Fold:
Amino acid sequence: MRGFARAWSVFLTFARNSLIRDMTFRANFLIELVSSSAWVFMNLGFYLLIFHYTPSIGVGTGWGKWEFFAFAGTGLIINSLTSMFFMTNGDEFGEMIRTGTLDFALLKPIDTQFLVSLQRVEWSSAGNLVVGIVLVLVATSRLAGAIGPGQVILYLAFVLCGVVILYSLLFSFAATSIWLGRNTSLLDFWFYIVSFSRYPMEIYQGRLGRPIRWFFSFVVPVLVAVNVPARELVRPLYPRLASDWLFTLSAPVAAAASFAVCRWIFARALRSYRSASS
Amino acid sequence: MASTASTAWTILRISMEERLAYRGDFMLGTLMRFLPIVTQIFLWAAVFSEIEATTNRGATVAGYGYHDMVAYYLLTMLSRAFSSMPGLASGIAREIRSGTVKRFLIQPVDMLYFLFLYRLAHKLVYYAVAVVPFVLVFYLCRGFFVETPQGWVWVAYVVSLLMAFLLGFFLEATIGMLSFWFLEVSSLLFIYMLLSFFCSGHMFPIDMLPEPWATVVKAIPLQYLAYFPAAVFLGKVQGAAMIGGLLMQATWVVAFFLLARWAWHRGARRYSAFGG
Structure:
């Protein structure tokens, strides 16, 4: 428990330092805020355009316009939380290995993975977080059916699971740069894989779709990360089947499993670390 | 004359060798770039199945059937292989900011000419390597190409692709030259990148846009970077419209060529050699 309290206070220091740093270059911060949300608004424009032509995404899937926007908002919340806390750090980690500054992280009396995962907080991603929250609020208010407090708590818990899944994937990839020396394209690879979670999992159908859906649900569970919370919130096909409980349960299971795998890969990778340039 | 040719050849050769240094990374990167298309194909399959179910007829979106839509996305990948210029504008901006641009003021080589050959070499190497993943993907997706162009349309398609390369080059070079006036252009570049992703038709066929947006987007040159060649291939623009489009594209190429040259001359006169 004391370890946890100390980790929390270290994290708060990191967050404060990052905020001070961001506020030193205030204009730059504003530009980052605006440009990253410009990207999001462009995507939303594309979605609006799609619903200009169709009432829903896929026959009988229940993803109508507002259900889908709740889904997109959820995806945005999860992605912006990941980029706020972990993306820069994942990127930086490769650089630490290449330049050898990881030595300093290893020497500190705190869990190394914790330290390298959270040392920078990207405050400008908070803009997209707000956009995501507004999107979810607007979308759910347009849908019939009240949302109970239990559902909200579950939703938040599942969003957290989603962040854990994306984080684990990111740092599993980042850790491989210990073996590869440099790994710029693997981070791109992470982006490309996460892009599979941009749309509801029901779209992956047919001969090719089924294996994709299976792979991204059970092996690399990025589909679980966004689909479970979004479904919990808007329940596109409510009275649900008994098997849906298994689906709901898959989020915490997938989060725990991916985190365990990520810890394992990270520890293995650290053991192979040979300090560079000293 | 002979010395000009040998200079050109040397620049071309050195740039090619440089590009081939990281070929493994490069091949993987090319193949990976097709991944987002996979989600796009499935999204459209779902959308079209829904439209078909509700309207009970052959579904089209802005004149595109499902097969056309998928073919369109694949073709824009090909257009972008010609028109996208990664690092061109930011490279020029960096040279201006750091002062290394002065080598072009001293050496008897024109900057645009050098960059053009350098880019040409990179593109040639890119095609030599990327032909493998491209052929693979297009072969696997051959079922989506219901109609292929006939006769002169092929010629028009190839011409529009080549002009897409020229337009992409001179347009980005012009933006890079803005650095002479603004020094820091990275946020401007980001905005350009966003606009071009949306308005070039890379994200969706711009025919889908409702008025007045469709007219606006078709009036600016970005559509010639991705949409126009694909539309020619799929027969979305034909006859007089196709010829008119090619002429318009050529006009934009010339305009941006002149603009880039002008910006270089004006900029070089303004340039104050930062960074020693």
